[in-house]
Design brief:
alpha/beta, nine-stranded mixed β-sheet, 30% strand
């Protein structure tokens, strides 16, 4: 169990536990366009959807999760939260989900994903964790195609991915006419390499805002920027 200031996440049945990536994406994702509805692709515990429920007035927050146990846990986490009337989780692959909603002409003002991203020759020895992590479980091109199909005209698509995948991911999104709006590159500390990229895309071609976020100055000594970003969520911030 992981407790935040306004909600709790049960995670014993999820391969992907609550981690910095999910918290970063949930806290960083742009909301200036005041989305009416939100979609979280590959929801896992439901963490990001819950964070966005706390941060926004979105009336409808949908999540889609393929793994049955994670889906059930996500539903429980939604039901236990004070935003349960706005949160809904679907048990489906993103392909099935997209096809169905595309036919109904359903669109979302905000689409978020913390996608699984290890190549097939990586193994942690834990099959469920690997499936959650494998790019094959949700290849980037599949994710981007779904975002392109389901994103409203003025919508934003927001992800966190390994920095080494950034150029490739941007190239894929631009091929379906989604363009970077904001790029934040994340480092663990001042001397470490850039590890993650937080990316937000829209249908409008523009010069993206690019910056950097450093998480710690020393072990468990957080930078003012990281504290500011996450203080509404972490109990000890």
């Amino acid at each position: 169990m992981f407790s935040f200031k306004q909600f709790t996440v049960q995670q014993d049945r999820c391969a992907m536990k609550v981690g910095t990536d999910g918290v970063l994406l949930g806290a960083w994702t742009p909301l200036f366009h005041k989305p009416f509805n939100i979609l979280d692709i590959g929801a896992g515990t439901g963490l990001i959807a819950l964070m966005l429920a706390q941060r926004s007035d979105a009336q409808q927050i949908d999540a889609v999760e393929i793994d049955e146990e994670a889906y059930e846990q996500c539903v429980e986490n939604f039901e236990q939260s004070k935003w349960n009337d706005r949160l809904f989780c679907y048990h489906a692959s993103i392909d099935e989900f997209t096809e169905e909603l595309f036919e109904e002409e359903e669109e979302y003002d905000l689409i978020v994903s913390n996608p699984p991203f290890y190549s097939k020759n990586y193994s942690s020895g834990n099959n469920k964790r690997d499936q959650a992590r494998f790019q094959e479980a949700l290849p980037f091109d599949e994710l981007i195609e779904s975002a392109q199909a389901l994103l409203s005209e003025n919508g934003i698509f927001s992800v966190i991915i390994p920095y080494k995948e950034e150029a490739n991911f941007i190239e894929l999104t631009q091929s379906v006419r989604l363009f970077p709006l904001k790029i934040t590159r994340v480092k663990g500390n001042t001397t470490s390499e850039i590890k993650r990229s937080l990316l937000a895309f829209s249908r409008i071609e523009q010069e993206p805002l690019v910056d950097e976020l450093i998480i710690e100055t020393n072990r468990h000594k957080y930078t003012p920027e990281y504290t500011e970003l996450t203080k509404d969520f972490y109990l000890k911030m």
